[in-house]
């Protein structure tokens, strides 16, 4: 069938005419204005109400932090260590000039040893033949008392065990020299003794500074450029001590437990033993407070994970392998005290083995007690004969003395010096420095966190705690430089507490783990459909109005 071109053209023309006739009628002016007002109203609500409200409810308040000062403490200001050691001279039978000669000889001996480079030595003459002088006794690191002894052939320096006093015995003949040679000899003996007393403290301070990333001090004894053998030996020794001991706390809780695998002993006179053998130590440890509780647990066998002790036929002893000490306690069934209260808990366990397993000692060393780092200590009571039903105070005396030594070790004390007051002073100075470094490091981390994450809020409480921490750090360092270490320790403790509270503020911590991607995931499903509709209507209205404006 052939199609006529004229008919085809007329068909197309009729089709187009029908389409034109089916177009919707043009909107009147009132309708156009109404639609424009609706679109304008929606966008007005979004721009002038929704957007400001959203910005106001989602805005992040960031209080001003003294970032530069915080970073200054973290990057070296805390390392401006000045640990003065004031030595008080009491020489009632020496003249002022004779005492000065001895001080010069001692100072020369100290400077020659180069072990006091990190500590500033000061001297005072509180009592001489010329007359008494006075000074604050709290600032005295060591009192050096001279005792005249005509029978002495050589000067003797001895540290008293129950006081911070170095007793020096000398004879008048040692001072009779026109050139002060004998006075120099006395000073040399005193200098050697002082070096022996303070060497552990000096090593601990140097190790703290060498371990702190913000310090750039070149410390020869812990420098890798020095003798490698000495470097590793000293570092390992100090690392073991720091790993074993707990961090300083103003309060500690002590739990003393008696465990026995059988029905005896049924009781122990622990209160009287604590009052006589342990309480004097706790009262003397004036830089912290202690609380003590006790418990007795019957039918408490060894841990199932521990291998049974072996009998040594030669020594007639039961042996515990050193590798089994970690599994000695049955932590699943023994009611050991957890950390309670604000301070850490120290557990001390007295274990009374069965009569068939006594004496029970550690293989190799033959000891019957050991320390568990940062946890507590264990002592085995190898009582000869049958275990009494009641352990008396005399039975518990060696055990409580062992626990006392373990307690001091866990608190950071060393065997040198042997004087407990000197150990307490040494711990005060070391804890002060450690707390200053720790607080400074925390403030530095907080400053870096605030600069790197601009989306986390910084409440005013954080800024207030940071300000207080910086003030306490300043006071701690000022008191430390003045030799008032008890006050410096208290300020350093407050600074560390404020710095940690500021760093672990709950409002900041929750935002650290809420990245921007999570916000997009929350807002996009809600605002996407609404935004597309509003934008489409706006573009359509603009497109419709363009021809009108062009005409």
Automatic annotation (TrEMBL):
Q: Where in the cell is it found?
A: Endoplasmic reticulum membrane
Glycoprotein keyword on record = yes
Which pathway is this protein engaged in? Glycolipid biosynthesis; glycosylphosphatidylinositol-anchor biosynthesis
- Return any one Pfam family short name: PIG-S
Name the UniProt record assigns to this protein: GPI transamidase component PIG-S
One of this protein's GO BP terms? GPI anchor biosynthetic process
Listed transmembrane segments = 38-56, 520-539
Q: Which family does it belong to?
A: Belongs to the PIGS family.
Task: State the membrane topology.
Answer: Multi-pass membrane protein
Give the species: Gomphillus americanus
Q: Where does it primarily localize?
A: endoplasmic reticulum
Keywords, alphabetical: Endoplasmic reticulum, Glycoprotein, GPI-anchor biosynthesis, Membrane, Transmembrane, Transmembrane helix
A single cellular component GO annotation:
GPI-anchor transamidase complex
